[in-house]
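Worked Example 4.2. Consider the chain below.
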Amino acid sequence: MKGFLLLCLLPLFGGQRSSACPHLCSCHHNQVDCSRRSLTSSSLPTSFPAGTTSLHLHDNRLTSFPNGLLDDLTSLRSVSLHGNPWECDCSVLYLRAWLLRQPPALTSHLGVNCSSPLGLRGRLVVYLTEKEVLESCHYWYWDLALVSQVCLFVFVLLQAALLVALILFLKRFERLSKEARRTREENLTAGESLRENVYAPFKDSSI
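Applying the procedure from the previous section yields the following structure tokens:
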């Protein structure tokens, strides 16, 4: 019975943000320090304690931020993000939007510079225009569209080849069927002729 109650209560508490200190980070009161941990975008913690007021993520290897990572940290007052090689393509849109929503007193944008692409290197993420970011995404979309078109072309060629092979097979099958039918008819005709030749002397003798 207790196990059943735990299973029923698990969904209620599963969605709540954990108060535990994230792995590879150190925590003191409401301050979370994840700086200088060689964190990448894939090894970055997926959540932080709900009451976090200060978050240090500087001097890592972060290139992008997962969407919604900082949205639930309503008590956040200080964030350090400098010293990371940010990639200013489509993946930077969330970070840019979050920085723009912050009050002027929060200096989270300081040192958050683009590392790539080359045309945006050194630019502050918060001052990028949406047009500049979207233009850097066009190359990725173009590559995806090109690959999709190539795959579609190969698929059409494969379907055409299978259709041609099916048509050739049906024609050959039809030809073989005709030959088999003609051979069968010839055999039947030859058999009838043979029977007539065999019984012909008997017919003549009976006359």
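The radius of gyration is 38 Å. Residues 1-17 have pLDDT under 50 and may be disordered. Compare this with Example 4.1 before moving on.
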